[in-house]
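From the pipeline queue, job 12 of 40. The input is one protein chain; the requested action is below.

Action: predict structure.
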Amino acid sequence: MQIVLTTEILLEAYRHGLFPMAQSAESTYVHWICPDMRGQLSIEALHIPRRLAKEVRQQKIGGVPYEITVDQDFAAVIGACGRKAENRADTWINPEIFKAYCALHDAGHAHSVECWQNGELAGGLYGVSIGRAFFGESMFSVRRDASKVSLIHLVARLWRSGYKLLDTQFVNSHLEQFGVYEIPYADYMLQLEPALKGEADFTCAGFNEKQIVSDYFKMRKML
């Protein structure tokens, strides 16, 4: 029997190291995934390639200024992540997952980072937040480096907010340039448990985006 992905079920699943995926966008079923090895990114020591750091400092991608927003258009971001692309023949985001994560966003537990150029959505990412743990779900780009720049802004925000864990679920070539690594499920749960008990404010109340990134780069001695 297909389980309805309620907000409560999703949050409980993440607390135990599980997350849902569909076989394809057209599938009517959702599968629970629990990898033996979990992809992770360091929040305080994210590897940032020099070229990307320069783009973030200049606030330009390919010479064109960009703007970063948070939670301004969550549905558009997950919708773009769920579309087929040149390097992605299919997607695991079906209508059930789209609906469930939009509800999770409305409940304050799912967030998006949007990258805009000339008033158009150039890229972005979204994920789930519980306590001081952030679970990255998916990202997309329609312009070069837009998703990568979004990731750097996300990590700077997580650092400023006091998050302790950034889960990527899997390791892929896109994340390898940022220093993604794997840990066994048992070790992951040991790190997840204390992170779930803490509190973090994803909104970074009182800080603007430029200040958040600037402070992160200063902490990293990258300015």
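Job complete. The chain has a mean pLDDT of 95.
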